[in-house]
Records
---
Amino acid sequence: MTAQATDPRPLTGEPVALDLLNTRWMSDGELADLFAGALGLTRLEGLAIWLRTTGLDDRFRADAPTLVHLLTAREALARAVAHPEDAGARSLVDSVLEHGRIRATLTAEGPGERAEFADPAWGPAWTAARDYLDLLGGAPDRIRKCASDRCVLHFHDTSRNGTRRWCSMASCGNRAKASRHYARTRER
């Protein structure tokens, strides 16, 4: 497979932090992992797909050090999202954030910012952790896990009234509706 292979994940396009969490998903009842050889991809091919899908491929390389740091960030974010009150989880995210910083700049358009890294391999991991901070600063209650028991995906609820429950109405939402319908018809 080439680096231009199609992203096999069922949910893409979420903010970078949640998109990183969604590199693990359920496929035919089994946990699939984009970074662990899902669907015949090598680990680095999975990384290249993720970098391309998130728009980070123009700044960062799909290499082994980047993958190791990204896996560290994914575990830190998974713990922080699942248990926001856990000081240990917050510490893990902080340890990823220590590998980068924001430099204020002056551009032709006016004030700007640029991320800097002592080791560019930390770039995607730091970017995902920084994105999580931005989500927390905006609407932390809109960071959600899919309501389906069989789903591990996360999303940022951008619905007007903030009541989105499913990663996708076409898959998990439809299954829940069908299950409720079946239960009602069975009772009759």
---
Amino acid sequence: MSGEGAPYYGNSPSPYDPAPPQAYAPDPNAVPHSRRGRGGGQRGVGADRFALTIHGLADVAAAFLGLWILLYLLEANQANVFVDFVHGVAGWLAGWSQDIFVMDAEGLRVFFNYALPALVYLAVGHGVAAWLRRL
């Protein structure tokens, strides 16, 4: 048999032995997912990174405040270096909201005076991040 027209898989005119499927070739004019809706180019990438940074900072601030509330309510050792560090960071983050709520129950006072700034940081940080992502 010669090489021309030799019966092998993919060279048969029979409908029962079809040719192998063609390899996937992406559309050269397709827009990558990361650039859809951005008007092309790399426009908006910096805003997305800045939004992610703000989003992350708001989460870290709320985590420190929540951790301090948890450590206080569980009566963690105040002389411990880690507890002192978390208390210092939480006190700095919640400095603007101290004594908004004045109550006799110390646990409730700490909870509300530190939970309020945590919620504010989350709401403002996530709101600003969502707004930046739309730019």
---
Amino acid sequence: MVVNPAVKPRVATTGLVLTSAVVLILLAFVPLSLDASELPAVIEILVASVLLAMALLLSWLWWKRQAQRRAWAANAEARWRSFNDARINNGTTTEVTLLSVDAVQPTGSWVTIMWNRFNHVQHAWIEALPEPLWPGSVLLIAPDLTQVMPGTPWPETYFIRAADCLAWAPAEGRQP
């Protein structure tokens, strides 16, 4: 399954929290009720081992999700460092947030972008990049001054060349 790297992974979901709560409650009360019951020892051991296995599985799921979140945060931090370095090392740059990928074609994609500085939403054609495009990404681009000039209307569709895309980073992981 391909996961959008621009979206921060969720650690706690409703199902995981509820299941964990039920298993913890069972772990607290079942041993007490097993001591008071007259069940054979084999059944008591079986019930206890099933509860223990469920608790271990849930612990592993929580650990795995935390590890995914930590890995995502480290990757996002590295991308933002690279993004800021590209901003410093290149001339005139601007940030656009990729709101949606409307159509993917072999030579590029039709996308909807928001110019972060102007809060302007616009359709754009972006040439194919080495990495896939993901909604929620912030692109650092070198703007084409023949398309966007002060005092002139915005073009209906903005064209972004692959060479003008200098870096990208996830919008959710932005460092202040």
---
Amino acid sequence: MEEIYHLWLAAAPTPIPEDEARIYWNCKDDPTPTLDEVLRCASYLYVGSWSEEHEPENLHAGEGRSPANRLFSWLFYIGTIDRYQAPLLNEELMTRLVDLYRARPGDIPADAIELPRLESFLRQHLRLYLLPEEPGQERSDLMHH
């Protein structure tokens, strides 16, 4: 049975210390007390899902054959490329995420919310910090992908 990955976005009110962001993005089990507290205060949105068939042939940030897969890969990329962090949601990132979420000709059907719901969530949470995290999880199994 093929594994299904579910993407939730967590909009956190404060930045995450770099050492805890490193633990988060590397899926380690080390304690992250600041991150855990920030996630308890976060707002969440379920975005959609994907499976192995939606993965891009070449791993490039923002690629993939479902909107949720593209958003996850882009957030992972910008959360780890220069330094470990929860990316700040600004207008530029919001525009990029909305663009990545738009349907593409090569997409394979997958569970996904409507684009206006994503846009509304992002607009309401500008200047907060985004992580691909499920509500109520210490660290999501989504990351083990």
